[in-house]
């Protein structure tokens, strides 16, 4: 019999706040973290992004680490420490524990600065600044700081990275390979990412408007979020508060295009169908969907079609900006 997997810890830092409570409070007040670029040095100051307001020095002070570290490390460490705050100090030694962290940027913020200095003066830069460039180095650093010596691994699959970290941790606990898995992800805002998406012409200068007829594209952001997963038995043993169970997840690949969804929405349809099947739930049992909602016409059309094909006349509560919806994509049924 497979273990039941529960969530007992939460850690979060985003443009809305530096911890879970602050972010939730801002969310409940319908506040937005999206604004014009201020911290990141770029020529594209017209773009709107979700930047964390703190500087590296301020983040380092919160974390108790050096401000010379990558911004991704600082964000990851802050969110991870919050997530594990209720665990006993020796949890990693007493239980089979994994740290599964996701990132696509890694320590690229420091590499960009190093490269700029290197162009100006090849003798000036300190090579130590880029020692955490690799995505896995972010995970390794934080795992070492929090004392995890068991399984430590990094997932980098673009937008699905953190979801895959949660799925992997869940699967390993279900199969009795782990007792506890700290899962989640981190990305700092960098020029490389900003310029890449801007080249695709899918960034919005204002706040993004998924499913709106006037949609232009997405807003990039930065942040870190982690969950503590564990078997229900271990949660009871450690007297941990249980927030929820992880019951369904699924990966699907329609092999259509590297950056676009097919017109028939095969990818997201298969993924949602697979997650429902794993969970043992029916479409009518679902009350909430958190959409990818990039605000691009391709994604909105495909994702909207996938939701309609599965949930049919029961379209659910969606996380969307307060704009008039494109009724060709979504109907809200009371």
What would your notes on this structure say?
By secondary structure, the chain is α/β, with parallel strands linked by helices. It folds into 2 domains: 7-245, Thiolase/Chalcone synthase (Peroxisomal Thiolase, Chain A, domain 1, 3-Layer(aba) Sandwich), CATH 3.40.47; 247-334, Thiolase/Chalcone synthase (Peroxisomal Thiolase, Chain A, domain 1), CATH 3.40.47. It has 11 helices and 10 strands. The chain has helices at 20-28, 56-63, 71-83, 91-94, 108-120, 135-146, 161-174, 191-199, 232-237, 266-279, 297-311, and strands at residues 5-13, 35-36, 48-49, 97-102, 151-155, 180-187, 223-231, 244-245, 288-289, 317-318. α2 (56-63) runs parallel beside α3. The longest helix has 15 residues, at 297-311. The protein starts with a strand and ends in a 16-residue tail after the last strand.
- Topology order in helix (H) and strand (E) letters: EHEEHHHEHHEHEHEHEHEHE
Number of domains: 2
> Average pLDDT, to the nearest integer?
90
Major sheet strand order: 5-4-6-7-1-8
Sheet with the most strands, sense and barrel status: 6 strands, mixed
Instruction: Supply Rg.
Output: 20 Å
How many E strands? 10
Number of helices: 11
Looking at the structure, the CATH topology of the largest domain is: Peroxisomal Thiolase, Chain A, domain 1
Strand content: 5-15%
Distance from first to last alpha carbon: 39 Å
Structural class based on helices, strands and sheet pairing: alpha/beta
CATH H level of the largest domain: which superfamily? Answer: Thiolase/Chalcone synthase
CATH architecture group name of the largest domain: 3-Layer(aba) Sandwich
Shape: globular
Q: Return residue spans where pLDDT drops below 50 for at least 5 consecutive residues.
A: 318-334
Helix share of residues?
Answer: 25-40%
Determine and state the CATH class of the largest domain. Alpha Beta
């Amino acid at each position: 019999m497979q273990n039941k997997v529960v969530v007992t810890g939460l850690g979060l830092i985003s443009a809305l706040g530096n911890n879970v409570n602050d972010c939730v409070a801002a969310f409940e007040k319908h506040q937005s973290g999206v604004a014009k670029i201020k911290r990141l040095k770029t020529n594209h100051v017209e773009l709107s992004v979700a930047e964390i307001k703190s500087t590296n020095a301020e983040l380092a002070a919160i974390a108790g680490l050096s401000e010379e570290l990558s911004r991704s490390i600082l964000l990851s460490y802050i969110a991870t420490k919050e997530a594990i705050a209720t665990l006993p100090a020796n949890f990693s030694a007493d239980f089979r524990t994994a740290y599964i962290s996701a990132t696509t940027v890694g320590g690229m913020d420091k590499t960009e600065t190093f490269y700029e200095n290197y162009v100006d003066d090849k003798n000036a830069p300190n090579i130590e600044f880029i020692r955490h460039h690799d995505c896995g180095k972010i995970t390794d650093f934080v795992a070492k700081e929090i004392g995890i010596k068991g399984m430590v691994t990094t997932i980098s699959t673009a937008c699905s990275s953190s979801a895959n970290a949660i799925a992997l941790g869940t699967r390993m606990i279900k199969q009795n390979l782990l007792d506890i898995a700290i899962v989640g992800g981190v990305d700092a805002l960098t020029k490389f990412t900003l310029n890449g998406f801007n080249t695709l012409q899918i960034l919005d200068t204002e706040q993004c408007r998924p499913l709106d007829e006037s949609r232009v594209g997405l807003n990039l952001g930065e942040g870190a979020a982690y969950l503590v997963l564990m078997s229900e038995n271990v949660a009871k043993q450690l007297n941990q508060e249980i927030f929820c169970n992880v019951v369904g997840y699924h990966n699907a690949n329609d092999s259509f295009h590297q950056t676009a969804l097919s017109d028939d929405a095969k990818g997201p349809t298969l993924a949602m169908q697979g997650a429902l099947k794993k969970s043992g739930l029916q479409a009518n049992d679902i009350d909430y969907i958190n959409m990818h909602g990039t605000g691009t016409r391709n994604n909105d059309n495909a994702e909207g079609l996938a939701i309609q094909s599965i949930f049919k006349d029961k379209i659910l509560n969606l996380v969307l900006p307060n704009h008039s919806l494109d009724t060709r994509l979504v109907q809200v049924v009371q």
